[in-house]
Design brief:
Length: 163
């Protein structure tokens, strides 16, 4: 690590602290030339696959877009932002674990639906109605029926095949 005071690349680590459940490491360092002390921070860079949209376009994965969709679905519901962010983190982790380079947007939408199914009935139905673009009232009613009994599963495949 290069000293921010004199530019010397040689230093020694005085203290190391793990933060944020191991996702970040802070190190207190001392320059071996000018003896100045400084702090560095290391974090894991998560590389997400590209998202393949319905029309074939590819764009970078964005947690913010998932959060926006969840916020719209949860509007006027008693669901805190922290719970919505937890859903975003679970979906993001799911994407990283299952897809290397590209992920179809429909798989992300299905995973968000799965999370909302167990989080809130109304948010789930709102998201599903936009995501699935129901063709008629019968499809919509089937989705509503699945939410009445949480022992049931949603009317879609819960776990898409990897790849």
């Amino acid at each position: 690590m290069k000293c921010p005071f004199c530019g010397n690349p040689e230093d020694k680590v005085l203290d190391t602290r793990i933060q944020k459940e191991g996702a970040t490491i802070k190190r207190r360092r001392e320059c071996l030339q000018c003896h100045s002390r400084f702090t560095t921070q290391e974090l894991v860079i998560e590389v997400y696959p590209l998202v393949i949209k319905k029309d074939g376009r590819r764009e970078p994965f964005q947690k913010e877009k998932i959060l926006q969709g969840i916020q719209v679905a949860c509007q006027k519901r008693v669901i805190g932002l922290d719970r919505m962010n937890e859903v975003v983190e679970r979906v993001s982790k799911w994407v990283i674990e299952r897809f290397d380079h590209e992920v179809p947007s429909k798989h992300i939408g299905r995973q968000v639906m799965k999370e909302l199914f167990y989080l809130d009935d109304v948010a789930y139905v709102r998201f599903a109605s936009v995501y699935r673009q129901f063709k008629d009232i019968e499809e919509f009613m089937n989705e509503l029926a699945a939410t009445r009994n949480k022992d049931d599963t949603p009317a879609f495949e819960l776990t898409p095949p990897p790849g």
